[in-house]
Amino acid sequence: MEKEPTQEYIQVKIDTPRPYRWSTGKYLGKLYKEARDRKKLVTNRCTKCKELVYPPQMVCGRCKVEAGQDWVEMSDKGTVVQYTYLIFPRWDPHRGEYYSSPYPSATVLLDSGLYLRSRLEEQDTKKLKRGMRVQAVWKEKGRGRGQDDIEYFRTIEELEVGK
Amino acid sequence: MTKKLEELEAFVVEGKVAIPATYSAGTVGSRFLIEMRDNKRIMGMRCSKCGIVYVPPRSTCESCFDKLDEWVEVSDTGTILTYTVACQPSPVLPAEPPVIYGIIRLDGAGTGFVHMLGEVKSEELRVGMRVKAVFKEERTASVLDIKYFRPLK
Amino acid sequence: MANRVAIVGIGQTFHKSKRPDVNQAEMANEAVRAALTDAQLGSKDIEAVVSSNMEPFEGVYLPDHWMASEMAACGKSGFKVATGGTSGASAVVEAFHLIASGLASTSLVVGFQKHDTGDTQAGMTACMTPVFGSGATTGAISEFANQALVYMEKSGAKEEHAAMVRLKADRGACRNPYAQLKLGLKGVEEILSSGYLEWPIRILDFCPQTCGACALVLASEEIAGKITRKPVWIADTITVHQEPFRAGSFGDPTGLETYSQDVASTKLYKRNGITNPRKDIDMAEIYEPSTWEEMMHYEHYHFCDENEGWKLIEKGITAIEGEFPVNPSGGVLSTNPIGATPVIRVAEAALQIRGDAGEHQVTRDVKTAVATALGGCNWTTMILLRRSL
């Protein structure tokens, strides 16, 4: 039985990008098209329970029936429900580079009643707070990526009704 | 606004995913690769219970589940069990097509070893042909430290 | 009429952040050998092997195929299960089904993950977008960061409480020879002066990435009776899904709707006669990816009322010597090889029932324990274990 030599561990690094072609189907396809062409967010409302289904899809998860074709255009304004920001840079596998800090992102409750997760424009993390009002700012040229065609949400000052 | 399903357009989103990965060869795998890099030797692992010599070596016997630690050197010469030719280009091919590769049973080994065949035309190949490893001058502890296997004259 | 199923063998690797000395197969093999030795069985005695691994986090696909030898799976039935964070628990459930149904009399569960190979957060981000939008998701951490913020504001929990959770986990890990992160933290101040990872989660509030494996041998009542005096019975299991992407992939962002954990625990407790969880169950090993999640899970699993989770940690109720110990092993906060983690939860709960947990054995006598798992899209799996049925 031979004795093993001193330990050198061989490691192999691989980072070849893998191309993909992902089919959205027709429901998500409509979201993507409206976002790219008209800079609007649309989704379908379940014909049975009347709740908005987001992202738009064929089956309503709650009712377990076909959701149907009742399309609704959503408001682009909302309220920040929760937010966070990065301390360390994180790797974005889709761009093949790091997200830089602080990269604030938030869950926004759109006035239409749906939650959406997106970037925030505000880079000063001290100004971020729950409940602040924001509005979507679309990319100049949409890439047909649906919600991803929103660049970020901008903080808006809104006049309170009655004042 | 309602629409019929047929009138909707489906999208195909094209993109790339790049997730960097670092694979560990492990202790057994590392020794196999290092012996090829440093000594141009091909090592196998023998199960003393079953007598099978695994090339490339592994740490557990497939048959009896014993832990293996008996290293043996196998020959750099062997017999072709089967072969094929990859004709279409692909990002995963180690060389430009046409790439001939085969499963070779090295003398002393109990398993087949997959590698490329070179210095030969595909029409000349035969199952049972004797072949010998050609090592590269510059080796990096990779299975491609063997350039290919060429027929014995 | 279902057969009774017991855990008769437990094995795990010494979990580390890097294992360059082994490949995936060899690492899983260490846990398999440990479990077979514990059960005093050979590989030939195992009829089915169910493995658990999340491929995108390592970039090694179909590991169950090329690792068949090392998992004692050659010529056996069984397959790999990949259900996100709950993979290991799903594998235990599947192995349990095989014996409960009478299709097998012994089975082996192998959970493994070698995180030093890939980039886990990138793996999660890659599979969540393009539905979410690549601008928002930075993996699971941002989800948990969002939830932590809401919990802080809603329940009155403070960062000190999150630090107390880490302290409890570290004390357990330092007594657990298999745990990865043994930090030897002295107090809450040390943690509060450490840095943030993704606000408001500190680096110390979050679980590590681990290379590790855990294996369990399951057997039918007939076989269990012949080979061990300390079988741990799987009394019940439950898996609940949640509507995906409704608001993030780990639950409702406001923390108001808990859905899958709530449904799972309510049903499990009802069908097992559990009316007061902290009394009727003796300890829990839960899947807590962050310190804030642990406090929230106390509430979601009905160990306490809403908004009271942080009080349990403050009063020491869930410590090793406490009235209702949770994660005395150090939990996920100390060791997290994703494919193996839920199997480790079941293994640690089983060790407590057997009285074999060594230095991290809890003070309370454990006759009943619950192990939980959490996965993407807020799946929940719960497994109830008992010393006798």
Assembly state (oligomeric): heterotrimer
Q: Which regions of chain C contain 5 or more consecutive residues with pLDDT less than 50?
A: none
User: Which fold name is given in CATH as the topology of chain B?
Assistant: OB fold (Dihydrolipoamide Acetyltransferase, E2P)
In total, the number of domains of chain B comes to 1
Helix-strand sequence of chain C: EHEHEHEHHHHEEEHEHHEHHHHEE
Question: Whole-number average pLDDT of chain C?
Answer: 90
- What would you give as the CATH superfamily of the domain at 5-119 and 209-227 in chain C? Thiolase/Chalcone synthase
The largest β sheet of chain C comes out as:
9 strands, mixed
User: Mean of residue pLDDT of chain B?
Assistant: 90
Shape of chain B: extended
Find the count of extended strands of chain C (DSSP E, 2+ residues).
Answer: 11
> Going across the major beta sheet of chain C, what is the strand order?
3-2-4-7-1-8-11-10-9
**Fraction in beta strands of chain B:** 35-45%
Structure overview:
The complex is a heterotrimer of chains A (163), B (153) and C (389). Chain A is mainly beta. Chain A has one helix at residues 25-38; strands at 11-14, 18-24, 42-45, 52-53, 59-60, 65-66, 70-73, 77-86, 90-92, 97-99, 105-110, 115-119, 133-138, 150-155. Chain A folds into two domains: 22-74, no CATH class; 75-163, Beta Barrel (OB fold (Dihydrolipoamide Acetyltransferase, E2P)). In chain A, strand 3 (42-45) and strand 4 (52-53) form a beta hairpin. With 153 residues, chain B is mainly beta. Chain B has a single domain, classed as Beta Barrel (OB fold (Dihydrolipoamide Acetyltransferase, E2P)), CATH 2.40.50.840. A nine-stranded mixed beta sheet of chain C has the order 3-2-4-7-1-8-11-10-9. Chain C has a two-stranded antiparallel sheet with strand order 5-6. Chain C has helices at 24-39, 63-66, 87-100, 120-128, 140-155, 159-174, 188-192, 221-227, 260-271, 277-280, 291-300, 309-314, 331-334, 341-354; strands at residues 5-12, 48-52, 80-81, 106-114, 196-199, 201-202, 211-220, 232-240, 283-285, 368-375, 379-386. Classes of the chains: A mainly beta (163), B mainly beta (153), C alpha/beta (389). The A-C interface holds A 7, 9, 11, 14, 22, 28, 54-55, 61-62, 81-88, 90-95, 99, 103, 105-107, 115, 117-119, 125, 130, 145-148, 150-152 and C 20-21, 59, 119, 121-123, 125-126, 129-139, 142, 145-147, 149-150, 153, 195-201, 243-248, 253-254.
